[in-house]
Design a protein that fits this description.
The complex is a heterodimer of chains A (about 260) and B (about 80).
Chain A (H helix, E strand, L loop, with lengths): L17 E8 L2 E6 H22 L7 H21 L7 H18 L11 H23 L17 H45 L3 H6 L1 H37 L4
Antiparallel strand pairs in A: 1-2
Helix pairs in contact in A: 1-2, 1-3, 2-3, 2-7, 3-7, 4-5, 4-7, 5-7
Chain B lengths: L2 H12 L1 H23 L1 H34 L2
Helix pairs in contact in B: 1-3, 2-3
Classes of the chains: A mainly alpha (about 260), B mainly alpha (about 80).
């Protein structure tokens, strides 16, 4: 394990560093971290895009206005398709969720930038909030009728307790899978990128023959970066779609 | 056997689960494409459903990856 020290550490990029301390409240240390910094940057970018994109309001949209309008109408169509007209009340929530996840994913792809969504605590907080909102909205809209989500139609009486148990477990697994999917995709993608980048450094250290050999992992890193851009957009989209699907259960528990 | 070795072997075994997720995602998109080539006009409306199915299948593979990472870095 002597070579282990000069190998690239793929986990180092996920370390949270305190940028400046905010003191101690009730025995807990509070600090402004690099994670918080990039969340602020992401929210600022979303705000700037929408503010400057919608400030000109010209009939023929410019570049910025096109991006803002496309983003808006894309999520609007998604919410309208899955939730219908009454679900449009949730459009601002789902749009902010999608924009936040999309911008933090993309920010993380810039070298030396921190990926906020590669922290389980961030995605977990988002997922738990979504599921709690589904439960609250479900009970507010349907009362006790929301529990019919766990009683599917046309199931024989003898099977019903088992089916209900499975339905309840699958409902409780939703926040786990929702948060782990985003977290795992981001974490795995960035680790793979770092491992291949480490191959380039390792091969280039071997001399002239190593430089030629390093072209392979270099091309692979470029290809994986392109793939990661696709994954970043796709996972933000999937996160928004699954939120819509779960909210649909809250609005119409009878399927 | 050393505990460290058992940990690494366990992480490797856990990653086999990702192969199952790969089969699942491949089945979903393969069947989507087969259906889309038969009836291209209906394909656009079902693409979101294909993505949802792929995301759900992929999530289970991510679980096994998380187990592997836990074994290496946490346990």
């Amino acid at each position: 394990m002597a070579a282990a020290e000069d190998r690239v550490d793929p986990i180092h990029q996920f370390h949270i560093n305190d940028l400046f301390d905010l003191g101690t409240f009730g025995g807990m240390k509070f600090a402004f971290t690099n994670s918080a910094l990039f969340m602020f940057v992401a929210v600022g970018l979303v705000f700037a895009l929408l503010y400057f994109g919608s400030s000109s309001r010209s009939m023929v949209p410019g570049r910025l206005q096109s991006v803002a309008e496309e983003l808006y109408s894309f999520i609007r169509n998604l919410v309208h398709q899955t939730l219908g007209e009454e679900g449009m009340a949730f459009f601002p929530f789902i749009f902010s969720l999608f924009a936040f996840v999309l911008f933090t994913n993309f920010l993380g792809l810039i070298p030396y930038f921190f990926t906020v969504t590669s922290q389980l605590v961030i995605t977990g907080a988002l997922a738990v909030f979504i599921i709690l909102m589904v439960v609250v909205v479900g009970f507010a809209k349907n009362g006790v009728g929301f529990l019919s989500l766990f009683v599917p139609h046309g199931v024989p009486g003898a099977l019903l307790p088992f089916i209900s148990l499975i339905e309840i477990i699958s409902f409780l697994a939703r926040p786990v899978s929702l948060s782990l999917r985003l977290f795992g995709n981001m974490l795995a993608g960035h680790i793979v990128l770092k491992v291949f980048a480490g191959f380039i450094v390792g091969l280039a250290g071997l001399g002239i023959g190593g430089w030629i050999g390093a072209i392979g992992p270099l091309l692979m890193t470029v290809a994986i970066t392109a793939l990661e851009f696709l994954v970043a957009a796709l996972q933000a989209f999937v996160f928004a779609v699954l939120t819509c699907v779960y909210l649909k259960d809250a609005l119409h528990p009878h399927h | 056997m050393e505990a460290e070795a058992a940990k690494l072997i366990g992480a490797g075994i856990a990653c086999i689960g990702m192969g199952g997720a790969g089969i699942g995602v491949g089945t979903i998109f393969g069947n989507f494409l087969a259906g889309a080539l038969r009836n291209p006009s209906a394909a656009q409306g079902q693409f979101t459903n294909a993505l949802i199915g792929a995301a759900l299948a992929e999530g289970l593979g991510i679980f096994s990856l998380v187990v592997a990472l836990l074994l290496i870095f946490v346990v």
